[in-house]
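Structure in, sequence out. Go:
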């Protein structure tokens, strides 16, 4: 049974949110976590449930193609609404596949080589051939990802928000890449921000944010925060592959 504790915000009665941190090609951990969520819903039924993936599905890990195939399909848990957010790695991947030479170089440096290999592509092959190997439905999925999602007293974004800027005026690049001053801010952002992007050893719960990127691709667990009423809990799946070197973050 999941252990619940007081949360920094609340959701309407009868609604539960499961939000999963950065996946980075760790498809087997994702499958395990989805199974845990399904079991939790069996053990603790709720009127409505939402599954949020916080972004960074691609790069570094062994199975980017498999992760996208799973998320581009119907919700893995029947009856659960699925929301998929855009991360900076998906953004760079899209730019690289569109033919931007600088983005292609950035993508390879930031972990794109394993992504290409998961599609059967030699990362050293001509860059103008890469996009042909990625299924059209995968490209459509990446292009359709959201930047932000609101639920009750929470807002979900990949990286963070800029303190002092209203939530409805946040810049795209900040939501995809923000670290400072967001991470050290004590500001009330207008909602508790649930985010990934910056790896932490364990999930971090503050009065104004919840960090859920626990470095699955670096040997940590894949983490899901479970939000309901004015409580929260966590589900985690352990690594099932050799971790990526920290030097390649």
């Amino acid at each position: 049974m999941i252990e619940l504790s007081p949360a920094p915000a609340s959701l309407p009665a009868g609604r539960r949110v499961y939000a999963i941190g950065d996946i980075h090609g760790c498809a087997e951990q994702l499958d395990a976590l989805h199974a845990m969520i399904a079991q939790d819903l069996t053990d603790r039924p709720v009127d409505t449930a939402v599954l949020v993936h916080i972004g960074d599905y691609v790069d570094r890990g062994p199975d980017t193609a498999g992760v996208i195939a799973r998320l581009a399909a119907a919700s893995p848990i029947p009856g659960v609404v699925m929301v998929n957010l855009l991360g900076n790695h998906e953004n760079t991947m899209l730019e690289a596949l569109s033919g931007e030479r600088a983005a292609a170089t950035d993508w390879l440096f930031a972990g794109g080589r394993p992504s290409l290999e998961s599609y059967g592509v030699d990362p050293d092959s001509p860059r103008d051939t890469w996009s042909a190997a990625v299924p059209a439905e995968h490209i459509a999925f990446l292009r359709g990802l959201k930047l932000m999602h609101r639920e009750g007293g929470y807002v979900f974004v990949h990286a963070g928000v800029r303190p002092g800027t209203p939530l409805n005026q946040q810049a795209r690049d900040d939501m995809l890449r923000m670290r400072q001053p967001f991470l050290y801010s004590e500001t009330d952002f207008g909602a508790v921000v649930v985010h990934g992007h910056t790896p932490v050893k364990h999930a971090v719960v503050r009065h104004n944010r919840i960090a859920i990127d626990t470095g699955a691709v670096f040997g940590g667990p894949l983490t899901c925060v479970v939000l309901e009423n004015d409580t929260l809990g966590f589900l985690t799946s352990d690594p099932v592959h050799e971790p990526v070197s920290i030097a390649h973050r």
